[in-house]
Amino acid sequence: EVQIAIPIMKPTLEKVQLAGQALPPGFPAPFLFADGLSSVETLLTNIQGLLKVAVDNARVQEKQIQQEKKELKMELCRERELRESLERQLTAELQSRATIQKRLKKEKKAKRKLQEALEFESKRREQVEQALKQATSGDGLRMLNDAGIPDMEVEHNGTQHDSAAMQENRTYIKPTIMY
């Protein structure tokens, strides 16, 4: 005589234990415990409900991911525009700098030429002054010609006058007169 162990069902105890559990958000309905349904059918219904919740959660998560992608793309576009703007500004600044450096170089060259011309004129003036001093001291025309100053005549009293040849060699610029 074999004894078969039949499980004793305690439907009220299971209902109380499972009914007290917190359901995940978005779960369509509480666990089903129908007296007429078998435990397998109840289990399958509960699994189906959990799958629906999982699908809904996946959709929500996908929407969040898509929104984050959009935000990141917008941020990338803003940063790209900012970078391009800064690159254009840098290019303009470099061109401006190159222009200023060229101008500075030209100005330095012009300044150097003016300085050389000033030095040359200063030396020439010193030579003329020395020649005049020597001419007034008695050496006369010979010293002026030796000093390299042609076309100058010295009168007997020691003053100088431009000769006609000197005036012909000069370029005369007539000042414009406004009427």
Automatic annotation (TrEMBL):
It comes from the Eukaryota. InterPro entries: Dachshund_domain. Keywords: Coiled coil. The keyword Coiled coil applies. Residues 51-131 form a coiled coil. The keyword Coiled coil applies. This is Dachshund homolog 2-like. It comes from Gekko japonicus.
